[in-house]
Amino acid sequence: MRGANSIKDQSLIKRLLPCTLHILLPIPLLPIILLSLYFYPFSLPSSPPTKLSPPSSTSTPLLPSAEKGYVCDTPCDYSNGRWVRDKRDPLYNGTTCATIKESQNCIINGRQDSSYLYWRWKPNQCHLPRFEPNTFLQLIVNKHLAFVGDSLARNQIESLLCLLSTVSAPKRVHHKGSRRWYFASHNASVSLYWSPFLVQGVQRSNTGPLHNIVHLDRNEKWAKDVHEMDLIVLSVGNWFLVPSVFYEGGKVLGCLNCEGLGYTDIGFYGPLRKALRATLSSIIEKKGGKGNGVNVIVRTFSPSHFDGDWDKEGTCSKTRPYMKEMKVGEVDEEIRRIEMEEVENAKVKAKEFGGFSLEALDVTKLSWLRPDGHPGAYMNHFPFGPGHVQNDCVHWCLPGPIDSWNEILLEMMKSQECRLSLVNLSSSH
Ligand SMILES: *[C@@H]1O[C@H](CO)[C@@H](O)[C@H](O)[C@H]1NC(C)=O
Ligand SMILES: *[C@@H]1O[C@H](CO)[C@@H](O)[C@H](O)[C@H]1NC(C)=O
Ligand SMILES: *[C@@H]1O[C@H](CO)[C@@H](O)[C@H](O)[C@H]1NC(C)=O
């Protein structure tokens, strides 16, 4: 299992890096934008999204045992802000946490500069508290938290496991279909389902197929476990940038970068939107109205930072964050916009069912501002020996900026708990 997953992650890097490079360059991008403009006028990258409602939250640790009479804090927009200096050490490091994937264990791999570890995200409207492992664990007592998606889902869950391990050691448990950890102290399970498209698909590989095959309207295997998930964090995006053939109703809808196959190139914005919409609809239909409620969180697109060739020294080797005036790249912003819009669309559908909450964990901007947070060449152990350099400018070092994703996730969970408690209070009077 471990071996298979690391092969998948490696292959994502190898295939994605050259593709991502293309996507980041304006000229090769033009045909994609033009095509998606032609077929999907809805997804036109016009003005940056400003009207979408931000994930709301609270900064008061409210637990199920809290006395009545409390107030939920005013919602905060965590998406906009800046990185500020922080003197405190990260909660964990590559020697204290055993579950860090080798290729993201930057310090152990020889990364010398450490100033990238000493920043914290400061939202414009509020203070984002440092991660509180005990609070997080209390919020998942008797629950199952599932991360579903690509290797960035794995990156985030490994950050979370390291953060939580500082107070309670999880046990790796066997489960068919996921990687799963169990916190006996809290009877809580945390799992990772590999599903890079969320919907049914086959990743391209050297042995074939040469393009991803993606069925935009079919459930993946993980969906059969939805009934036993209490909180689902979805992570999707990067694999849609890889050459693909997209299917709908069992028929080819079109493709992305598939010269020679005779299909129409429809870009990836439309297919990504369809896959996310189908996934959210299917979760709502499965879980809605079941009484116990479920939270679904869509983690928005995580930008990569290739500022050179992926196999050359010095690519994504920055050592400081960008300051806030640096605008998010056009493609990253557009993918984020699609994800935010689909969350809003799904909220409308979810309203028909009670006890169902759906939010976006909007990390695009804060991540974009951290070109210094990727492994780069330190995806390999002491990388600058003989042979050529490889750079990972997609995933994030652990510890690193991705820890802040989990800080925001915790605030969202606290806020959700607070709202549920208030509903309970008002319904019992
Ligand atoms: C990791 O953290 C431990 C405990 O805080 C500390 O003793 C150790 O020096 C740290 N290691 C590194 C590589 O920073
Ligand atoms: C542990 O949590 C599961 C749900 O994840 C629940 O079904 C079970 O009853 C819990 N066990 C105890 C002892 O509370
Ligand atoms: C709300 O009430 C339900 C049923 O009475 C209970 O199971 C649930 O734990 C309560 N939630 C909170 C957050 O108090």
From TrEMBL:
Coiled coil region boundaries: none
Keyword set includes Transmembrane: yes
GO CC annotation terms, alphabetical: Golgi apparatus; membrane
Subcellular location: Membrane
Membrane topology: Single-pass membrane protein
Chain ranges passing through the membrane: 21-40
GO molecular-function terms, A-Z: O-acetyltransferase activity
Domain Trichome birefringence-like N-terminal: 75-127
UniProt key word Manganese: no
Pfam families: PC-Esterase, PMR5N
Superkingdom, taxonomy of origin: Eukaryota
Keywords carried by this UniProt record: Membrane, Signal-anchor, Transmembrane, Transmembrane helix
Domain Trichome birefringence-like C-terminal: 128-412
UniProt similarity note: Belongs to the PC-esterase family. TBL subfamily.
Name this protein carries in UniProt: Protein altered xyloglucan 4
